[in-house]
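worker-03 picked up job from queue 'complexes'. Input manifest follows; three sequence lines, order preserved.
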Amino acid sequence: MIEVKIVTFQDIFQYEAQKKGRYSEEYKKLSAWIMLDKEDLAKLGIKDGDRVLVKNVNGSVVVAARISDEEPHPQPHPGLAFMINSPWSNQLVGDQVDGTSIPEFKNISAEVAPTEEQVTEIRELLERIRA
Amino acid sequence: MLAVCTGCSLLCEDIELALKNGAISQAKNLCRKGYAHFQSLFTERTKPQVDGQKASMDEAIARAREILRESKRPLLYGWSSSSSEAQREGIDLAKKLGATLDDTSSFCEGLLLERVLTGRLRTCTLDDVRNLADLSLFWGSDPSNSHPRLLSRFAYYPRGEKRQKSYEEERTCVVVDVRKSATAALCQQLIRLPPGGDAEFISAVAAVLEGKIPRTGDKKRMIELGTLLRKTEFGAIFPGAGLVYSLKEKMDLLESLTERLNQIAPFRVLPMVGHYNGRGFNQLLLEETGFINRVSFQEGQARHSREYSIMEAARSCDAALVIGSDPLSSLPFGVARALASVPLIAIDPRRSLTTDAAEVTLPSAMYGLEAAGTALRMDGVKVEFQPIVESSLMPDREILKRIGEAV
Amino acid sequence: MVGAMEVYQLLPKTNCKKCGYPTCIAFAVALLNREKKIEDCPPLFEPKYAEKLKKLRELLAPLEKASETGLIIHEEKCFGCGNCVVACPVNVAADPTGCAIGLGPKSDRVILVVEDGVVKCLNAKECRRFGPNRILCNACTATCPSKAIEFV
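worker-03 finished. Artifact:
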């Protein structure tokens, strides 16, 4: 298990998949992942594509791990992870806010551990929201 | 035919479309995002429904009125993907209902846009950037992914009045971010900050502008940046969500920095607006109430408070009308849950997690595709659009009017 | 990008001149410029070079897909941002009131356009990398955020 800070961001290909529909395999594939530094993947003993459980006080979600792809000048960023802003990442964002009432989308503390579970389906996420 | 793209707040007006048998046979000049937006005209369209059952439009509107009539603390949320005409109807409806009104800027570019619209941060148009800017600074923003044509239409590559030699000789691009984004790969300089490190970065910039050595960060890069800033003739700063989430209540630091920079040369701020008419809503609400978002008409006169922000109002409201937005997907889990626990009315052309959880779904026409309207580009320039296909769907301004007729 | 040395390593390296060039390295360069084809080297088809021939075909396969200037577009990576359209010097010269100022092309003498969300190459022969007076222009590849456009 490792601890990371997660920053969420936007991606044009995930947007394209979202515009086709939030319930597609494509949308899940392009949204449900966490990008980790090489060193962090090694610490977890996993490789690109393996599944991880990402968890914090706000919630948890199973996504695919991806190796950081910052080319052509890869700069290591151990302890820092990246996720696409999506219903998956939103499971981890707290709803308690400070004076500005702005949620913490780009500095999410979480634990990451390998898992055998399948990637969380969007229908499951909707069920949790409607529970 | 010529069309306007409502895929993002650039509102590109040079789109050439060819239609055949009701489908798009060829589209020119649409970026990947815009093309996906246009194609979405044909998939996952909503149909009127009430409590999970198919209904007629009249039945759905009747039920929506009922929910709002019975509600004591209604919340009207969304707005940034609606035309200015619809936004006006929405404000009228909120006044009629004594409702709370908030939009997507509330948890994103609102903090920046407020300062721009009230003159505390000086701004300019995108055309000014193309014609005059020799420095474009993307701060916590990645336009290549969010506003794909920003660099090619305005900020870096095109020729302009004072920038005929453009990116080859007369323009520089700098990115300040926590990662090497796609935009960073194109720019001369990437200043990489740790998450939350923007306040320190601002101090470091202030230091190099005074000719001092900064205490933090890559000193060599900061000194280079200082030199660049001092040579700038017209700077354009494009701050995005990354900067907002880092500075938050310390946004005054950005004000002081830009004031200092304006002593060197004009430095203008153009906040990256998330949805195609976000700025339109903020400007309209500001004109009507003196506030850009988070207002309540419960006491008659508009009042502004953080308790009226979507983050808080989602929990305190007892019914919500969500228009052109999918908060169940885009908001933190706890807020999404709170919203899903009250009766929801969703006005949306397309299916989403929010329409799936709503008690009432009202399908609307897509602006710029099926309905005419106006919107404000991210720099405040007004753009008008016409439909490209015929549709019997009601535009949301019409739906809101119908709801308002009998609440 | 494929280099001349890589190609040379897969040739017989005998300088037999059967291709019409004095050396195999010269032939390697000619292969890359598409002035010669693999078939122009008869010795390569002898059984002892079978392995090299196979590898050479694989190495040069991308050139088949590329235009005469060696341009390849990976549509699945393209953002449709138009950076290349606005940066291309041929586009700019042909279309001073369109691409040059950031708009969609108004002239049909341009070589790069964005269609259906991705970039397309038309009139490749107008590209400055083409023909006997070619230069190593890289305006389109250097301005691409995703390496969707590249030269082999």
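worker-03 released lock.
The radius of gyration of chain C is 18 Å.
The first helix of chain C runs from residue 4 to 8.
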